[in-house]
Amino acid sequence: MLERKVYSVSQINRYIHGILENDVILSSVWIRGEISNCKKHSSGHIYFTLKDEYGSISAIMFRDYASLMPYEIENGMNVLVCGYVSSYERTGQYQLYAQIIEPDGEGALSIAFERLKKKLSDEGLFDEDFKREIPEKPDTIAVITSPTGAAVRDIINISRRRNPSVRIVVVPSLVQGENAVPSIVSAIKDVNRWKGADVIILGRGGGSMEDLWAFNDERVVRAVFGSEIPVISAVGHETDFTLTDFVSDLRAPTPSAAAELAVNDVMKDIKTFMSLSLRLENVIKNKLIFEKEHISKLQNSAALRHPEQQIADDSIYIENCVKTINKHMIYTLESEKLKITGNCRRLELLNPMKVLSRGYCAAFDKNGTINKAEDVVTGEEMTVRFSDGFVTAKAERKELFENG
Question: Could you tell me if residue 129 is inside a domain?
C-alpha cells in the first residue's frame, strides 16, 4: 500500500501560486469586462471586480499604476484590463493584478472623455483668462509631433512658403501608443526649459478616437496648461476634438492650419509695406506741392516785392493804434476822475460834522452816545458836542414827549 502524502494549506496555496505565476497566458493577459464594486483606498490602491454576464474576477491596481491613469474608473464602465493573474498565498484567493485599464469601445472612450473634460473644466484649466496671445511675427516655432508623419511635412512646407525666415525646430515625440503620453509631456517640458521658441505647435494627423487618445490624457493636458510658451493645438482633422484643444491657447483645425496661424505671411507683409510706402510717398509729394505754392505766393507778395511800402503801411497802422490807445486812456481817466469826485461828495454829505454845523449837537455820557431823552440820567454829567467844541453839563430835569 502506497504511503499517503499529506500537504499543508500553505503548501497547496504556494503550489497554486507558482502555477499561476509561471503560466504563459496568465502572466500577461488582456481581459474585457465591466467594472463593479470599485473602491479607491486611502493608500492609492484601487480594488474592483471585473465581470461579464457569466462570471467575475476580483482585481486590484496598485498605487504606482493607478497614479498613471488618465481618467478615473467607475462602476458600470466597460473596460479592457491588462495585467497578470496570481494568488494571495495567505488566503488562497486568486485575483487580477491590473497594470493598464482602457475604455472598451468608442462609447466608453466618449464617457471617459466627457468625465475628464468636466473635471478639468471645473478646475478652470479651460478658462479664457489663462489663454495667452500667439505672437504675430515669431522667430522660432517648436513643432512637437512625430518626425516621420505627414503633419510635420505639411507644417514645414506651409511655414517655408509663408515666411522662409522663420525657424522651425522639430521636437520628435510619439503621438500614439502606450509611451506617447510621457513622450509628449517630456517634449513640452524640454521646449520650455530650452526657452528658445516663441510658440509651440502640438499635433499629429487624423485618426480614430483611440489613435488620438494620448492628447486626451490628463498628464498631457496639464503639461500644456503649465507651459510658459503659448501652445497651438493641431490634432487630427477639423471634426476631431481632444482635450488639448480646450486647454491650449489656440486650436487649429489641422496641422496645416496651425502653420498658417503661427507663421506670418511675409508676402502679405511686403504688400502692406508697399502700400504704406506708396501712401507715404503721396503724402510727401502733396506736402511738397503745397509748400512750393506757398513759397511762390510769398515770393509774389507785395511785402517782398515792395518792402518799403509795407513798412510805411505798418507805420501808419501803428500810429493809428497809438492814437486809439491814447484816446481810450484819456477817456478812461476822465471817467474814473468823475467817479472819484462823486464819491467824495457823497462822503462829505455823510460827514457828521456837517450835520452839527447846521445847528445840531450831540450828547455823550460815560456809556457813549445818548440817542434818546429817556437814556439821560438826572444829576449825572454829560458832554454836549457842537461843531466848534464841546460843553460839560449836568441834567437837572428831563421830560419825555407823549407818543415819542
Answer: no
